[in-house]
Write a structure and sequence with these properties.
The chain is built from nine helices and 25 strands. The protein is an alpha/beta fold. Strand 5 and strand 6 form a beta hairpin. Bound molecules: flavin-adenine dinucleotide. Flavin-adenine dinucleotide (FAD) is lined by residues 11-17, 35-38, 43-45, 48, 50, 53, 87-88, 116-118, 140-141, 144, 166, 169, 251, 254, 286-287, 292-296, 298.
Length: 408
């Protein structure tokens, strides 16, 4: 009798976990068990009341909730063993996980574990925002969950903090549910979302203040006003809520508690070109690797890592020591973060994905064993995806480094 409850346990039923589970089933994996703590699959897309989702993977545009239901149907059709209402509370040694559910606490074992637990926006506590503690200070994800699952809009005139893609989703969510933001603010001198998308707030009549940050929240029970610092000057802005958008961090608590740990750049688990973590029984995919990408990106990444993982089932776990991909400041992170000597598995990543910490002008280059093999110059923007093809020789190298030379 097999010592395993499943060939693969997937933790997280968002786009990346579902895509990986379906791909593994298509490639002959026997039992693929998909665990999610929520009552339905779909992950963060479930509470998005807007489109676009699903164009590339399903050939049509879905609203978030419908996309989530589509994912659940596809997983069921592929024969994935779906267990919603199951929270994984611990990664154990040797491919076991501790799970809590309505049935109590149990330990499940599998030949491989895939973690696809997504990412979350930084809440008030982690942003160290001072002031009163009234209700009405929420993230975009929380606002959308209030609306989608409880029909609640917690404010009518919120201030929106941040200017990432998700901040535009926040503006749209407010406007389509009867709330009119008083302003959108961004501490940097430029928006984080690309033009022309970042013109959206202004086009719909929401003032967008750059070089502005929030200093204080005022209000006894509900938010009544905020103090902002705009171009160095303090001013008070009346509003009834604060919407904290973006600044996503990977949901990597399971890795942090385990001996696997997380990468200091991405805050997610370090993975190699197959999506395999430092412990070769564990894989990871989607936003847990490097918050944050679109739903479609997470889906395609999950599918690619599912393909590598399916080929790895039944093999002896590789004992090869990985080589870390290093980088200069102001590069924030690189995924894959480690490389292993090429194995007979299909690679999941064709490109290194990089992000910058801040806006920087200069020359970015990739070195293998100290020899430059790629370079590009330009102005690099924070939190924007940069893709660099992974050279065929990279997995054999002992020194893989991204060098940055700043230019004025
Ligand atoms: C507010 C908001 C708006 C967005 N708007 C868009 C948009 O318009 N278009 C677009 O393409 N993308 C959008 N996105 C991004 C998109 O939703 C994500 O990129 C995508 O959902 C990421 O997929 P994922 O599989 O990596 O993780 P997620 O979708 O986050 O799924 C992770 C899953 O893991 C589960 N989980 C976590 N921890 C555990 C645990 N310990 N045990 C069991 N289950 C666990 C969670 O319940 C969740 O279901 C938006 C995201 C947000 C937050």
């Amino acid at each position: 009798m097999s010592p395993f409850d499943a060939d693969v346990i997937v933790i997280g039923g968002g786009p990346s976990g579902v895509a990986a589970a379906i791909e593994m089933r298509k490639r002959g994996a026997g039992r693929v068990t998909l665990l999610d703590r929520e009552p339905a699959l779909g992950g963060a897309t479930r509470h998005c009341s807007h489109s676009p989702f699903g164009m590339l993977e399903f050939g049509r545009v879905y609203f978030g909730a419908a996309y989530g239901r589509k994912l659940e149907r596809e997983a069921a059709t592929a024969g994935v063993d779906i267990r919603t209402g199951h929270s994984v509370v611990r990664l154990e040694e040797g491919g076991a996980v501790t799970v809590t559910s309505g049935r109590g606490v149990e330990t499940l074992r599998a030949s491989r574990i895939l973690v696809t637990t997504g990412a979350r926006e930084k809440p008030r506590s982690a942003r160290l925002l001072s002031g009163d503690r009234p209700i009405g200070v929420v993230t975009t994800g929380t606002l959308q969950a209030y609306i989608a699952f409880h029909g609640l809009v917690p404010f009518r005139r919120p201030l929106i903090v941040g200017s990432e893609l998700v901040s535009l989703s926040a503006v749209l969510t407010c406007l389509t549910h009867g709330a009119r933001p008083v302003a959108m603010i961004e501490p940097r001198s430029h928006a984080l979302a690309r033009a022309p998308l970042n013109w959206f707030p202004t086009l719909v009549g929401v003032p967008f203040h750059r070089s502005t940050d929030i200093v204080d929240i005022i209000g006894r029970d509900r938010v009544e006003a905020v103090t902002i610092r705009r171009n160095g000057e303090l001013e008070t802005l009346a509003c009834d809520g604060v919407l904290l958008t973006g600044q996503f961090t990977p949901e990597s608590a399971l890795f942090l508690q385990s001996s696997i740990g997380v990468d200091t750049g991405s805050d997610g688990p370090a993975v190699d070109q197959y999506g395999r973590a430092r412990d070769p029984l564990h894989f990871a995919a989607g936003n847990v690797l490097r918050a944050v990408e679109t739903g479609g990106w997470a889906y395609r990444e999950g599918r690619a890592i599912g393909r590598s993982l399916a080929a790895d089932i039944g093999r002896d776990p590789e004992a090869v020591q990985p080589v870390a991909v290093s980088f200069d400041d102001p590069v924030k992170l690189v995924v894959p973060n480690i490389l292993r000597r090429a194995a007979s598995l299909p690679a999941a990543f064709r490109d290194f994905q990089l992000r910058f910490l801040r806006r920087a002008k200069g020359r970015l280059s990739l070195e293998l064993e100290g020899r430059e093999v790629w370079h590009a110059s330009g102005t690099w923007m924070p939190e924007r995806r940069v893709l660099v093809p992974i050279p065929a020789a990279a997995p054999q190298a002992q020194h893989v480094h991204f060098r940055f030379r700043e230019e004025s």
